[in-house]
């Protein structure tokens, strides 16, 4: 469903802040894969998601979604294939527009924006039903401005918007990190429900190892612009936090040793 | 001057406020909807006037002249939009560049810095001579009121369409807009074109109204536009929630601005100081949100989901 071939990306080329963020990244996702992504700060997790979403062009490599080469497509064109939820709840919705308008915008993802009505009366019932499944009472507030909602509500709404038109790939960039634990758990539960219901191919970044283990059928760990660990199938099911910590230390220990070797 | 003078001047002031109200609606589209302070308008207003007056003098019908002015304004908006999106120049700077360039363009359109048009020789749509003693349907107040209402209805419809909604989303949250497949660059250009088209249309009416177009007629237009937007929001903000009514509030804000200005002039203030006064008033109002949050903010408890 998704194929990343030898992706390279360097930021601030030629300056003191130059950072080689992705170093020949390769990844293949099968249809229906739910992959959790973990790794330290600066490992390249968000950079990978941004590369897939086309926030900026990559320096090298190719990105294929469902067999189609999207490497050269602009961000808004790629959006036709992607559902995205960001870390900051403010980022995923238009605060000055109301709930149903936001959903109507999302419902037209991938379509040409015409001079037809921005939201048709017939759409509203569908939106109301979908909002009801979130269990947040948003179905009673469809004409409220999204800016009035709490972070958790906005994140749940963004999730709904990202999946309203079934995306080929769902990108979740630490979408629960800015929420309090209770809300985060609820949003994660909603995520699981939506992903299961629509059989979505999903990439989910998280800082929480427990979440990374509990969700999805595959787990990848990133470090220094590459994937250092890829666990799937039965192995993933049996994985514990201790295992993961051990592997994490192992991987970072190796990296440390190689750094040392370089310096020595 | 007696109070009668002031009252006598009010219908004219009202008409002038309405004409500038169209301009202010243009400013509203960039400033509030697209979240861009577009300085192109200082030049575009004159472009509209210049194109209109030259078209009229070459024998064109007044509606054709207005249409040409509208198109010229949209081209100016296209220029700023191109500089901003394609060339990556910050919006404010892009507007200043276009505005500066338009100074020369406007001079070339008019051939000199000032062109007058005689209401007796040309069939004008509006004029300060058509305020009193003319039939109701020919009255400038009536005509401009109708025009502004028609424009508001069209804009209300447009910003409710799929395309219009996507422009609103672009201005509110470009990141979200792109994630939802919206071409934010195209939308910014389109918004700037609509805005500047309206401003030029207003300039075209203004030159007819005052009987001349002048190279300096747009100087400080952005400030007047902002003043109208802010006054409209301050007075009618609580009352008018609907988008169409918000646009109407901007038009009314412009009328109030000109009425206050007329009173100030009537009070005998040195007219050289008017622009300084306008700038100060707008500066204070633009500072209000910041000052409010800094000095009058109530401590709010950060709340999550219950």
Task: Name the features.
heterodimer; A: 264 residues; alpha/beta; Rossmann fold; 6-stranded mixed β-sheet; 39% helix; B: 306 residues; mainly alpha; ABC transporter involved in vitamin B12 uptake, BtuC; two-stranded antiparallel ribbon
CATH level-two architecture of chain A? 3-Layer(aba) Sandwich
* Mean pLDDT over the full residue set of chain B: 92
Which residue ranges of chain B are poorly predicted, with pLDDT under 50 across at least 5 consecutive positions?
Answer: none
Q: Give the N-to-C terminal Cα separation of chain A.
A: 43 Å
CATH topology of chain B: ABC transporter involved in vitamin B12 uptake, BtuC
CATH class of chain B: Mainly Alpha
Query: Strand count, sense and closure of the main sheet of chain B?
Result: 2 strands, antiparallel
Describe this structure in words.
The complex is a heterodimer of chains A (264) and B (306). Chain A is an alpha/beta fold. Chain A has one domain: 3-Layer(aba) Sandwich (Rossmann fold). Chain A is built from 9 helices and 10 strands. Chain A has helices at 45-53, 75-78, 99-107, 121-134, 151-164, 181-198, 209-214, 233-238, 241-263; strands at 2-11, 19-29, 34-39, 60-65, 68-69, 82-85, 169-173, 202-205, 218-223, 226-232. In chain A, the strands form 2 sheets. Chain A has a 6-stranded mixed sheet with strand order 6-7-8-3-9-10, sandwiched between helices. A 4-stranded antiparallel sheet of chain A has the order 2-1-4-5, covered by helices on one side. In chain A, β7 (169-173), α6 (181-198) and β8 (202-205) form a beta-alpha-beta unit. The longest helix of chain A has 23 residues, at 241-263. Chain A starts with a strand and ends with a helix. Mean pLDDT of chain A is 90; it is low at 256-264. With 306 residues, chain B is mostly helical. Chain B has a single domain (3-292), classed as Orthogonal Bundle (ABC transporter involved in vitamin B12 uptake, BtuC). Chain B has a two-stranded antiparallel sheet. The N and C termini of chain B lie far apart (64 Å). The model of chain B has no long low-confidence stretch (mean pLDDT 92). Classes of the chains: A alpha/beta (264), B mainly alpha (306).
